[in-house]
Write a structure and sequence with these properties.
Oligomer: single chain
Distance between the termini: 72 Å
Largest sheet: 4 strands, antiparallel
Shape: elongated
Helix content: 55-70%
Strand content: 5-15%
Strand order of the largest sheet: 1-2-4-3
Number of helices: 10
Number of strands: 4
Low-confidence stretches: none
């Protein structure tokens, strides 16, 4: 009989715990808060949902890193509301991003400027100074894999041929090395058409550059390439031969 009572007491404790968690929370609020609650109640929002959202936002804000909180404390005006500060900060960020984007788009389209790294710049200078039939050295040292790894954020051995080609198609156009790169795929073979406004020597340089890339030992697969350089176009065919062990 005593054993039964002990079991009943256990169940009673569990029931009380559940009831305590489900028990409604009643708080007295000032008139301003009451008006805000009424405003959203009239729009169809329940008080419980308002409390849930408010508590979650409060928790998220207080979960910010100390570094971010320090930035808020530094730049928020003394009497400024947090939302006003956030609106001002987001507006400023958006304007700066738009300025950067607009400036880059304008220089790319109007001035035909390129986004060029130090290594590629040095290689292009070397290519320009090299004799007409000596472009092999300038393009052998390139930063293609650095850009591909930066953009994909994946180890090179995990990248597929599709991912590498898609990255080249994106990054080399954004950098304005080419104004368009067309990619056509048939089975395990790709045909790439690089379009630019330079000259045949420019096409020859990039043909050697990308031949080095797709023949690199670091790739997880063996590629067979063919290419032709024209005055304002570079044509390349890339076929995946087999996956390396």
């Amino acid at each position: 009989m005593a054993h039964t009572n002990k079991k009943d007491n256990g169940n009673s404790d569990e029931t009380k715990e559940v009831e305590s968690k489900d028990k409604p929370i009643y708080v007295k609020v000032d008139e301003t808060t009451r008006n805000i609650i009424d405003k959203y109640k009239n729009l169809g929002t329940t008080i419980s949902n308002l409390v849930k959202v408010a508590v979650e936002m409060y928790d998220e804000y207080n979960s910010m890193s100390p570094e971010v909180k320090a930035i808020v404390d530094t730049y928020k005006e003394e009497e400024e509301k947090l939302v006003s500060f956030l609106e001002r900060a987001i507006s400023y960020y958006g304007k700066q991003k738009n300025l950067d984007r607009d400036l880059w788009v304008r220089t790319r389209d109007e001035m035909k400027m390129m986004l060029i790294g130090k290594t590629t710049f040095n290689q292009l200078i070397a290519a320009a100074e090299a004799p007409q039939d000596a472009l092999d050295k300038p393009f052998k040292k390139n930063v293609a894999f650095d850009l591909i790894l930066w953009y994909t954020e994946k180890p090179l051995k995990n990248l597929t041929i599709d991912e590498i080609i898609a990255t080249i198609q994106k990054v080399w156009v954004v950098a304005n090395y080419f104004y368009k790169i067309d990619v056509h795929k048939e089975g395990d073979e790709f045909h790439l058409l690089f379009k630019h406004r330079q000259n045949k020597r420019y096409s020859r340089y990039w043909l050697g550059y990308f031949t080095e890339v797709f023949h690199a030992e670091e790739l997880a697969f063996k590629c067979i390439t063919e290419g032709q350089a024209f005055d304002e176009t570079l044509s390349m065919s890339i076929k995946v031969g087999y996956k390396k062990k």
